[in-house]
Amino acid sequence: MAFHVEGLVAIVVFYLAILAVGIWAAWKTKNTGSEGDRSEAIIVGGRDIGLLVGGFTMTATWVGGGYINGTAEAVYVPGYGLAWAQAPIGYSLSLVLGGLFFAKPMRSKGYVTMLDPFQQLYGKRMGGLLFIPALMGEMFWAAAIFSALGATISVIIDINVNISVIISALIATMYTLVGGLYSVAYTDVVQLFCIFLGLWISVPFAMSHPAVTDIGLTAVHHVHQAPWLGSINSLDIYTWLDNFLLLTLGGIPWQAYFQRVLSSSSATYAQVLSFLAAFGCLVMALPAVLIGAIGASTAWNETEYGVPDPMTKKEADMILPIVLQYLCPVYISFFGLGAVSAAVMSSADSSILSASSMFARNIYQLSFRQNASDREIVWVMRITVFLFGASATAMALLASSVYGLWYLSSDLVYIIIFPQLLCVLFIKGTNTYGAIAGYLFGLVLRITGGEPYLYLQPLIYYPGCYPDENNIYIQRFPFKTLAMLTSFFTNIIVSYLAKYLFESGTLPPKLDFLDAVVARYSREHMDKATLVKSDNIVLNELAPVNPRHSLTLSSTFTNKEAFNYVDSSPELSNTEDN
């Protein structure tokens, strides 16, 4: 394949335009936030993101390279088809559920990151533990989509994969570094527009290619391969449900999502943004579905691609750029490539910023440097944006199973963080002992279930498991959902058991080494006042809070239920309910 100068020029122009928008957004909003709130302005954009920009940036967070490439691949692969393209419906339902049940309580309490409520209720140790799967999910996701982008660009303009990955990562990291959420949000508007326009322009050209059979015919009839509508075998129903629940419920507890929720100007706006993004995800999936259907309807031996077809060559994951390259005119394929690169960067920048935000606030500031200045936190964020961007790039270049690592880490988000989020927001009485027990049970059940992408054999063979071509056993039983439910109920049971044992006197107070139940041995004083800032929240949406003004940030995080036994102190009794 020849080197395409025109394609390279098109990509360079597009990248420069994105970088210019990011720097402009950073310059436009450089004075946003008061002298002591610059770090919060970088993380949540001063909590003044409007509906238009907010809707675009939340949609673009999900509509990434994995989303459009993966949807097209699922529709194209024989035996799977549209029936197994779960991401569009799954992520849309995830956003709807997030808007209905999670957006308002998180935004109304004025949190800055997703981990704030965990550290507030369970303490900084548990916040650090939950940071691990959250960080893994964000980093491996960024690495996976950088890897996909490099392969996509190399297919169409035939340049070195490593160079394309490094340049793409540098662009995304640079504007995230200078502008934080503002740059990410404004560039998302441009990127989402490019994705929509680029893919929809490509579809009619690809569909009208002489080698492409009518997709209405190939949807239900076997022409070049099995019908692209696909089907679900009775043996695979539980696997389908397990994966669907993972996408729907596991798509909620991500910092990238809650960063947009918490940046909204009000709790109601946060809900509306979630619903708008759900609709946007469905709309943006349509061209990807059509491109996958076109790939399944093409006689590839009648194109320049030749034989064998992409499935036989094991290039099914690249079906979208292959359709752009071989079924569209050159100038259209370059425009479509811009759309793909836009999709990747719109997700990668969000992941890098999310990981940096959680580390700077929940690990560095709240766990180690409670008295750190705002300027210090801003510099920690900038350094970690660069480090996390470089790490994601290195993994994309060096790791042979980035996607396998991301699958495993996204499973951990579903199995560990989602049940913990349910407990911390909706289940009264859970504590650190239950949280740790639920964390460990969920982790053990997930790892012992095996992971084919990483060639990990299961230690627990659930009913219906079978070996694949590599003799790695595949689980048909919905063991991921089982692990999630086990983690959830373990948290509740152990929390109430620990509370009973300490409050009944069965266990002496000195054994409460996590300071989670017995107040007189607690070293910290919980108070939600420092997390809630009235100038950021509409008063009628503010959760009832009777603040006790703490003198230091270190006094912010301790379990308030530890003080339940005290009746005589008006100051402490006023913090009973929030």
UniProtKB/TrEMBL annotation:
Q: Which UniProt keywords apply?
A: Glycoprotein, Ion transport, Membrane, Neurotransmitter biosynthesis, Sodium, Sodium transport, Symport, Transmembrane, Transmembrane helix, Transport
Compartment annotation: Presynaptic cell membrane
Specify the protein's topology with respect to the membrane: Multi-pass membrane protein
Q: Which reaction does it catalyse?
A: choline(out) + n Na(+)(out) = choline(in) + n Na(+)(in)
Primary site of residence: membrane
Into which family does the record put it?
A: Belongs to the sodium:solute symporter (SSF) (TC 2.A.21) family.
The protein here is known as: High affinity choline transporter 1
At the highest ranks, the source species' classification is: Eukaryota, Metazoa, Chordata, Craniata, Vertebrata
